[in-house]
Amino acid sequence: MWEIDRTYYDGFETTFQRLIEKKQVLDKGRPLPQSALHKIKEALTIEWTYNSNSIEGNTLSLRETQMVIQEGITIKGKSLREHFEVKNHEVAIDYLYSIIHENYQLQSRDILNLHGYVLRSIEEEFAGRLRNGGVRISGANFIPPNAQKVPDLIDELIAFVLNNPLGLNTIELATVFHHKFVWIHPFFDGNGRTVRLAMNLILMQAGFPPAIILKNDRKKYYEALNQANNGNYQKLLLLMCQAVERSLNIYLNALPGQESYESIATIVSEPGVSYGQEYVSLLARQGKIDAYKEGRNWFTTRKAIEDYIENRQRKRQL
Ligand SMILES: Nc1ncnc2c1ncn2[C@@H]1O[C@H](COP(=O)(O)OP(=O)(O)O)[C@@H](O)[C@H]1O
Ligand SMILES: [Mg+2]
């Protein structure tokens, strides 16, 4: 269970390097101004809640989610349950921030608590409790393990994260945790929302901002999990890197003197640009250049593209 095929590693080296550098820039820029920090945290809480709930089937839009969180408004035509899902997720995020600190160590109690918040007032009988029966995941290429094995598997997973026997970096560790957790599927319901919270305990403990899996990527996310079930972490790792980078960029943009990101369409239409949209989009999707996706568009900087091209030419000449 704890063997990991790391043949993906070479293809991710530049991406990991870039994320580590960005984190270093952010660390040097800390502490961020209190007001900026507060705004970013609030925006992330809304996005995180919207995206995670939406992946799970909640029909509130980003704007509606924001209104429920910020103004306590009830949205006409939406069920009480959907409102609870928003409120609960916000409480779970608050809880997560409250327990995270420099020497934090992942423990099952915290994961159960997160799950307890996620399902509170909705599925009270399951909230904060491991399942005691079988489950199936629709569309999945496997059946989760027998309920009797769940407590031990969760303990082993946590030990794996804490001891890190393979020497994985933080993003790999959060990715493997994410996958193994939903593979175990410890709860009758709420596994996805809980793991998208809990994986951030690992990232945030290491000083990364919380990463958000986007609703727009739902299909890719499910495919990535099926690949991971077959031992291939490539796709899931790419999604995780993109999620981490997106949050890093949000924080970095709050630092003074940062280069501004523009849509690829905008960049390639600038005078003196000789590369095309297709090519740059491909590099962005593959994680080869510093870029992030917002809605349907990819954003990057001219410098990121030019650095990449220059680097390639240099490699060719060697
Ligand atoms: N093929 C798969 N293999 C492993 N895990 C999967 C697969 N498909 C979906 N999942 C995970 O299961 C979650 C759904 O489980 P569920 O208990 O209903 O959680 P939630 O209610 O929070 O959505 C998804 O969000 C995803 O994390
Ligand atoms: Mg569910």
Automatic annotation (TrEMBL):
PROSITE patterns xref list: FIDO (PS51459)
GO MF entry, a single one: ATP binding
Site-annotated residues for Important for autoinhibition of adenylyltransferase activity: 56
Residues that span the membrane, as ranges: none
Ranges for domain Fido: 106-242
InterPro entries found in the cross-reference section: Fido, Fido-like_dom_sf, Fido_containing
One of the Pfam families matching this protein, by short name: Fic
Residues noted as binding ATP in the record, renumbered to the chain: 189-196, 221-222, 229
Entry keyword set: ATP-binding, Nucleotide-binding
Active site: 185
Keyword Aminoacyl-tRNA synthetase: no
Name of the protein in question: Fic family protein
Species annotation: Flavobacterium stagni
Organism lineage: Bacteria, Pseudomonadati, Bacteroidota, Flavobacteriia, Flavobacteriales
